[in-house]
Specification:
The structure holds two protein chains of two kinds.
Chain A: H1 2-19, H2 25-37, H3 39-55, H4 71-83, H5 87-175, H6 177-187, H7 191-198, H8 205-212, H9 222-234
Chain B: H1 9-17, H2 22-43, H3 46-63, H4 73-91, H5 93-97, H6 102-110, H7 117-134, H8 138-149, H9 154-161, H10 165-188
Helix pairs in contact in B: 1-2, 2-3, 2-4, 3-4, 8-10
The chains are: A mainly alpha, B mainly alpha.
């Protein structure tokens, strides 16, 4: 492991050894020893030496004539043009907007989408509540009508029963003791009681009566509307 | 006392900071060749090197007021030149790392007999080293140029690139091996002796 590490160090120092830039005498000595005893290392050294001799004299092509003479005025010209607000600045700003604008648009769209969803949800909730109230009102009006009809039919029945009672009373005289009990039962059961028994399961009937003849919900005050809704919701028909 | 390219850096910088704008021209004249060649060996192409050289000096003009003189002015410029070159290479990675065939292009361009054989040979060699540099990855290219051409120590290179000395030695060795492989291939194809 240690030997491999040392060999790697020597290998990495080989270019400096070949180019004459290796200052460490110890490493130089070790490289020379390795070249002498290690065939693989020697081969690596020969190849690298050949590469070095191929590139050591190679040079980049010279820039055009007068290139360096004109450098100062060209740099000054660019510095001068950079100091004002130029097309380059506009171009840079345009580049900035190229990325910023879509990002801002997306954020704005997300906001609009989120808030429009919320408000439409609220509107829906409001419409739904309004519909529910209207529906309750309608149902209750139907119920009221039913009750009114029932009251009317019961009144008719009462009248009929009263007539019957009168008839029975007239028979009382005729039937004497045997029929007496029956007639009493009928006369002691007034129709009004029968009507009341119809409303026996109805809570707060007397309060409900306050609103029976109210046909237009919108004419009530806010408090009255709220009370009515509360009472109707507690009503069991 | 009149300033010239032999004047001390500090003297030139102080003069510039005192409002003498022509002092900046002296800095450009003093370092333009070294900066240009540092960049040219990195990016290879002259036009790219010219553009980056100008950018480096323009940047120096705007940042000279912040220059604290802790390092030498050329070290400051050298760092900028290497970093601007590395950025340029990264931006143009596909263009910079592709291998330019020296065979056909060279033959087509120089096949007319107007140039002497000697000139042709020089041009061919120039192109060969440029292409060899182009096969190197950016990091290895920077280390190879700094060590091989600019004779910088590994410690100096480490200060410019913020890398460890051990890693830089490995970079230099592998750069050599890549150039070796490139030349071997050209030799096998008969483009070089």
């Amino acid at each position: 492991m240690e030997t491999n590490k040392n060999n790697e160090d020597l290998l990495y120092s080989l270019p400096d050894y070949i180019t004459g830039k290796l200052n460490d005498e110890g490493i130089r000595h070790n490289i020379e020893e390795e070249i002498r005893i290690n065939a693989g290392f020697r081969e690596e050294y020969e190849l690298m030496k050949e590469t070095y001799s191929s590139i050591k004299d190679l040079e980049f092509s010279e820039p055009p004539a007068h290139y360096f003479t004109n450098m100062v005025p060209r740099i000054n010209q660019r510095i001068g043009s950079n100091s004002g607000f130029t097309f380059a600045h506009i171009f840079r700003l345009a580049n900035l907007f190229k990325y910023a604008l879509p990002a801002v648009s997306v954020i704005v769209l997300i906001f609009i989408f989120t808030f429009s969803n919320k408000s439409s949800k609220n509107e829906n909730m409001f419409v739904h509540t309004e519909d529910t109230i209207t529906e309750i009102m309608k149902n209750n009006k139907d119920t009221i009508k039913t009750i009114e009809k029932t009251v009317e039919s019961n009144a008719t029945e009462e009248k009929e029963l009263t007539d019957n009672t009168t008839v029975n009373t007239s028979h009382k005289v005729n039937r004497e003791k045997n029929t007496n009990q029956t007639v009493k039962t009928v006369t002691e059961k007034p129709v009004a009681n029968n009507i009341e028994s119809l409303f026996a399961d109805t809570e707060q009937t007397e309060n409900f009566d306050d609103y029976v003849y109210e046909t237009d919900f919108s004419t009530l005050s806010g408090k009255e509307q709220a009370d009515l809704i509360k009472k109707l919701s507690n009503t069991k028909f | 006392m009149e300033l010239n390219i032999q004047s001390e850096d500090k003297e030139i910088i102080d003069s510039f900071l005192d409002g003498n704008n022509s002092a900046f021209n002296i800095i450009v004249l003093k370092y333009q060749k070294r900066v240009y060649w540092t960049i040219r060996k990195m990016v290879v192409d002259h036009d790219d090197a010219d553009d980056i050289t100008q950018e480096v000096f323009i940047k120096l003009h705007s940042s000279l007021k912040d220059f604290r003189g802790e390092s030498m002015l050329f070290t400051y410029l050298y760092k900028m030149a290497i970093n601007y070159s590395l950025n340029h290479i990264k931006k143009n990675k596909n263009k910079m790392t592709r291998e330019v065939p020296i065979d056909n292009e060279f033959t087509d361009k120089y096949s007319d007999k107007s140039e002497s054989d000697n000139e042709m040979e020089i041009t061919r060699k120039n192109k060969l080293i440029a292409d060899a540099i182009l096969v190197l990855p950016d990091q290895q290219r920077a280390v190879f140029n700094m060590r091989f051409y600019d004779d910088m120590t590994y410690e100096e290179i480490a200060a410019v690139l913020n890398k460890s000395v051990g890693g830089l030695k490995a970079n230099y060795f592998h750069a050599f091996k890549k150039i070796q492989a490139f030349l071997k291939e050209k030799k096998l194809k008969g483009f070089i002796d």
